[in-house]
Specification:
The complex is a heterodimer of chains A (628) and B (184).
Chain A (H helix, E strand, L loop, with lengths): L26 H24 L7 H18 L2 H9 L21 H29 L12 H37 L7 H9 L1 H10 L23 H29 L12 H32 L12 H12 L2 H21 L6 H15 L15 H11 L1 H15 L8 H24 L1 H7 L3 H31 L5 H27 L14 H17 L1 H13 L30 E5 L14 E5 L5
Antiparallel strand pairs in A: 1-2
Chain B lengths: L1 H9 L4 H7 L1 H21 L10 H13 L1 H13 L2 H25 L8 H33 L1 H6 L1 H27 L1
Classes of the chains: A mainly alpha (628), B mainly alpha (184).
The structure holds copper (II) ion (CU).
C-alpha cells in the first residue's frame, strides 16, 4: 500500500496522552529536585565537617555535586524505569501518556520535548546574563552602579558556557534530532532508548550548578576555564568543570545513539544515499563527539583534580598550563560544528520541501558535511596563535581556512536547491535564508580570525565576539527557530501563528545585525573582549550595541508567546502541512506514542526529496514479516 | 493488552544491533583511556620512577589475563544458550572486579600525587577503577537478572553479551595501562 493511509491505525491505547494531565504526574520531577538539593547539601556538609572546612570550598562542592547528581537521578524515576528491572526486579511501568514528560522515560519523543523546554529555559537565563553584560557596557565604567569587575567576569562566563553547552549543543541535536532520528529512518525508537532518556536528566543539575556558581565564589575564567587563573578564581570553577563534564557526557550519550541508530536501525531500503540530509548533520555531530570529546573531557577532570586532589597537571613545578589549551580546543573548536552542522543539514531538509525541488548536488552536500567534520578536527590551535611557535601558525591557518571549501559545498547545495524553484516563503524557510545570510558574514569574518597577520591584531577583540555570535546565534539559533516552527505541527498537531513567526523573524534579523555588526568595528577600533571598563572613545558605538541588544533580547518574548499560545489554541494542522516528502510526515500529526503501528514496516523505494510532478511515492508499507 | 504489546514495539532493535552499537560507547571509552595513557608521557617523565608498586602491578595484570578464561567461557555458554552456566562465570568475574578495585586503590600513594607521574598515575588508575565499578555493576545486574527472572535474561541476552564484551575491553585497557605505567 503506497499511501499514508495505513498510518491511520495506531496500536490501541498507545496513542499517548490517554490520561489527562494531573498535577500528581509532576511528582517525579519535584522529587528529583528535592532529592538533588538535599543530597548536595548533605554530602557537602558532611565532607566539610570531616575535612574541617566550609561547604563552599572545592572538595565539599565537588562531593556535594556528585552526590546531588546521583540523588537527582534516583528521584527522576530511573529506578523503576530502568535500574530495578535491569537487576531482575519488577518490570518498568509502561508510560504512554502525559506522565512520561515529567519523569525518566525511554521514549525519545518525550525526551526531545523535554530538551526543547530545557533549551528554552537555559536560553532565557543565559540571555538575561547577556542583558546584564550589555547594561554594564552602556557606559565606559559601570562598575560603581552595576556589576563589579569580578561579577562581570562571572556573568560572561556563565553566559558563554550555558549558551554553548546548554543551548547550542543540544537545541537542534536534542530538541529536533532525537525526535526525528528514529522517525526519519523508519525505526520506532533509537538504539539505546534508556541511555537517551538519561542524557536529558544530566542537563538540569549541570545547568543549575553553573548558574548557581556565584554562590560559592563563581569563576573568573570565562567559559575556557584556563589554568592557572582557574585555580585562583573562586570555588565556582568546580561547578564549571563538573557542569561541563556532565553536559559533555549528556551530549555523548546522544552521540552514541545517533551513530548506533543510523548504522543499525535504518528501514529496509534506506541506503546511505537515501538517509535524509538532517541525519547526516546529526551523524557528523555524533562522530565529532565520540572521537574528539575524550581529550577535552580529561582536561576538565585534570583541572578539577588540581583543585581538589593536589595534583599538578597545570600548575606548580610539574604543570603545563598550555597543555590545557590544547586539550580544551581539541573538542571545543570542533564543537562549533556540533552546533552548526545540524543547522546546515536542517536548511537542506527544509528548503527542498519549501521550494518543492530535490536537494541540489546532494552527494556534494554530504561530502561537505563530512569534510567539515574531518578538517575541523585539526584546527583547534588557531585559538592561541599568540602562544605557539611561528612554524605551527601557517599550518593551522591553512587548515582553518580550508574549512571554507566544504562549507561552500553546503551553501551551494542550498542555493542550487532554491534556484529555479518556487519557494513558499513560510516562516521556517525565511529563517533558514536569514541563517544562511548571517552565517555568510560569520564565516567570512572567520577567515580574518584564521589569518595569522590579521588575527594577531584581532584576537580577543570584539571582532571575535561578532564573528562567533554570527555563526552561533545568527545561524544556529535562527535555524533552531526554523526547526521549531517547521516541526511544531508534527509534535503538537497545530500550526504556529505565521504572522507573529514572520514578524519576529524580521525583528530578530534586524536587531541581531544591529547588535553584532557594529562589534566588528568595535573590534578593529580596539575594544577588548571580557573587560568591564573600556576607554571613552568606544562609548557611542557600545551604547548603540547595548540598546539594540535590549530590543533583540526582548523580542524573544514573541516566539515564546507564539509557541505557547499556538500549542494551546493554534490552528489545527493537517498531517503534512508543508507538503514534505520526508518520512516523518507519513505518520499522523501529532505523532502517536508508537510512530509506526504494529503490523506494518516501511520500505524505502526512492529518494525522499523527489518533488517532480507524478514522482513515485518514496515509501512503501508492507506487512511485518515473521521473525522481525 | 495493548500496552504489553507496545513494549517490544517500542524497543525493537534486534540483538545484532544492540551488540553492534555497543561498540560505539566502548570506542569512546577506549579513546578516553588512550587520552589518559598519552598524558602519562606528557606529565610522567620518560622513565618509571623508583617506588612504584611493581608487585601489585604485575599481580593485577596476571589476574586480568587469567580472567580471559571465564570471560571466554561466559561468551561460549551464552552462545550455546546455557544461561545458568554463564551466570556462574559472571560470579567469578565479579570477584575479579572487586579484587581489581581494591588493588588499584592500594597502589595509590606509592608515588605522591603532587609529582608528575604520581598525578597522572592516580587519576588514570582512578578512571580505570571507575570502569571496573561500571563493569561490576553490569555483572551484578546480569547475575541478579539471571537468577531472579531467567526468562527476561534470555530475551535480553544482548545485555549479558555486552557485559562480556566490556570485560574484554577492561582486559585490554588494564594491560595497556600496565605497559604504559609500569614498563615504559
Ligand atoms: Cu575555533
Amino acid at each position: 500500500m503506497a499511501t499514508t493511509g495505513v498510518q491511520g491505525r495506531a496500536v490501541e491505547g498507545t496513542g499517548g496522552g490517554g490520561e489527562p494531565f494531573a498535577w500528581s504526574m509532576v511528582l517525579p520531577l519535584v522529587r528529583a529536585g528535592f532529592m538533588g538539593f538535599t543530597g548536595y547539601f548533605a554530602a557537602a556538609w558532611i565532607t566539610a565537617m570531616i575535612g574541617h572546612t566550609v561547604i563552599v570550598n572545592p572538595l565539599p562542592a565537588t562531593v556535594g555535586y556528585v552526590v546531588g547528581l546521583l540523588a537527582w537521578l534516583a528521584g527522576s524515576g530511573i529506578w523503576d524505569g530502568w535500574i530495578r528491572r535491569a537487576f531482575g526486579g519488577a518490570e518498568a511501568p509502561a508510560l504512554t501518556g502525559v506522565e512520561r514528560y515529567f519523569r525518566f522515560s525511554s521514549d525519545p519523543k518525550a525526551t526531545a520535548v523535554r530538551y526543547v523546554i530545557f533549551n528554552v529555559l537555559a536560553f532565557f537565563f543565559a540571555g538575561l546574563a547577556a542583558m546584564a553584560i550589555r547594561i554594564e557596557l552602556l557606559t565606559p565604567d559601570s562598575t560603581k552602579w552595576w556589576l563589579s569587575e569580578v561579577h562581570y567576569n562571572q556573568t560572561f562566563g556563565i553566559h558563554g558556557l550555558m549558551m554553548l553547552l546548554a543551548v547550542a549543543a543540544s537545541a537542534i541535536v536534542g530538541g529536533m534530532g532525537y525526535y526525528l532520528l528514529p522517525m526519519m529512518l523508519g525505526a520506532r525508537t533509537v538504539i539505546f532508548p534508556r541511555l537517551l532518556g538519561l542524557s536529558w536528566w544530566l542537563l538540569p543539575p549541570a545547568a543549575v550548578a553553573v548558574f548557581m556558581s556565584p554562590l560559592i565564589g563563581g569563576f573568573q575564567t570565562g567559559w575556557w576555564g584556563y589554568p592557572p587563573l582557574a585555580q585562583n578564581s573562586g570555588s565556582g570553577i568546580v561547578f564549571y568543570t563538573l557542569g561541563a563534564a556532565t553536559l559533555l557526557t549528556s551530549s555523548l550519550l546522544g552521540g552514541i545513539n545517533i551513530i548506533g541508530t543510523i548504522v543499525y536501525m535504518r528501514a529496509k531500503g534506506m541506503s546511505l544515499g537515501r538517509i535524509p540530509m538532517f541525519l547526516w548533520g546529526l551523524f557528523a555531530a555524533g562522530t565529532i563527539l565520540i572521537v574528539e570529546a575524550p581529550a577535552t573531557f580529561t582536561g576538565t577532570l585534570m583541572d578539577l583534580s588540581d583543585m581538589i586532589l593536589g595534583s599538578h597537571f597545570y600548575t606548580g613545578p610539574t604543570g603545563h598550563p598550555l597543555a590545557y589549551d590544547d586539550q580544551f580546543w581539541w573538542l571545543f573548536h570542533p564543537e562549533v560544528y556540533v552546533f552548526v552542522l545540524p543547522a546546515f543539514a536542517l536548511w537542506l531538509e527544509i528548503l527542498p520541501a519549501a521550494a518543492q525541488r530535490p536537494v541540489f548536488a546532494r552527494n556534494w552536500g554530504i561530502a561537505g558535511i563530512l569534510g567539515i567534520t574531518m578538517i575541523g578536527a585539526m584546527v583547534g590551535v588557531h585559538h592561541y596563535f599568540t602562544a605557539v611557535s611561528d612554524e605551527r601558525m601557517p599550518i593551522f591557518m591553512t587548515l582553518t581556512e580550508t574549512i571554507s571549501i566544504p562549507s561552500g559545498f553546503v551553501f551551494l547545495c542550498a542555493l542550487g536547491t532554491l534556484w529555479g524553484g518556487r519557494l513558499r516563503l513560510t516562516s521556517p524557510a525565511l529563517l533558514c535564508l536569514m541563517a544562511m545570510m548571517n552565517f555568510l558574514i560569520g564565516g567570512l569574518t572567520g577567515i580574518f580570525n584564521a589569518d595569522v597577520p590579521a588575527d594577531l591584531q584581532l584576537h580577543n577583540t570584539y571582532w571575535v565576539i561578532g564573528h562567533f555570535h554570527y555563526t552561533i546565534l545568527g545561524s544556529v539559533i535562527f535555524s533552531w527557530l526554523a526547526g521549531l516552527y517547521w516541526w511544531f505541527p508534527k509534535v503538537t498537531g497545530r500550526l504556529v501563528n505565521e504572522f507573529w513567526a514572520k514578524f519576529h523573524a524580521w525583528w530578530f534579523f534586524i536587531f541581531f545585525n544591529m547588535t553584532f555588526l557594529p562589534m566588528f568595528i568595535l573590534g578593529i577600533e580596539g575594544m577588548n573582549r571580557r573587560i568591564a571598563v573600556y576607554l571613552p572613545y568606544l562609548h557611542p558605538l557600545n551604547e548603540f550595541v547595548s540598546i539594540s541588544s535590549f530590543f533583540l533580547g526582548a523580542g524573544f518574548l514573541i516566539p515564546a508567546a507564539n509557541l505557547f499560545f499556538s500549542w494551546r489554541s493554534g490552528k489545527k494542522a493537517p498531517q503534512n502541512p508543508w507538503g514534505s516528502k520526508s518520512l516523518e510526515w507519513h505518520s499522523p500529526s501529532p505523532t502517536p506514542y508508537i510512530v509506526f503501528p504494529e503490523g506494518s514496516e516501511v520500505t524505502v523505494v526512492g529518494p525522499n526529496d523527489n518533488y517532480a510532478a507524478g514522482a513515485p511515492e518514496p515509501f512503501v508499507w508492507a506487512p511485518t514479516t515473521a521473525g522481525k | 493488552m495493548a500496552v504489553e504489546m507496545a513494549r517490544p514495539l517500542m524497543d525493537p532493535a534486534p540483538e545484532r544491533a544492540k551488540r553492534g552499537a555497543f561498540f560505539f560507547p566502548m570506542m569512546f571509552m577506549g579513546i578516553l583511556s588512550a587520552a589518559w595513557f598519552l598524558a602519562r608521557f606528557m606529565w610522567g617523565g620518560t622513565s618509571v620512577p623508583k617506588g612504584v608498586d611493581m608487585g601489585m602491578g604485575i599481580g593485577l595484570t596476571v589476574l586480568m589475563l587469567l580472567s580471559i578464561g571465564p570471560m571466554l567461557g561466559a561468551r561460549g555458554k551464552l552462545n550455546r544458550g546455557e544461561d545458568a552456566g554463564a551466570i556462574g562465570n559472571f560470579a567469578i568475574l565479579m570477584v575479579v572486579a572487586i579484587l581489581m578495585i581494591a588493588g588499584i586503590i592500594s597502589t595509590w600513594g606509592a608515588i605522591p600525587i603532587g609529582t608528575g607521574y604520581g598525578g597522572i598515575y592516580d587519576v588514570t588508575s582512578g578512571w580505570i577503577g571507575l570502569y571496573f565499578v561500571g563493569g561490576l555493576l553490569g555483572l551484578l545486574a546480569s547475575f541478579m537478572k539471571g537468577k531472579r527472572v531467567p526468562e527476561r535474561f534470555r530475551n535480553e541476552r544482548w545485555v549479558a553479551h555486552n557485559v562480556v564484551s566490556f570485560w574484554g575491553e577492561l582486559v585490554l585497557l588494564w594491560t595497556a595501562f600496565f605497559v604504559v605505567f609500569y614498563l615504559l
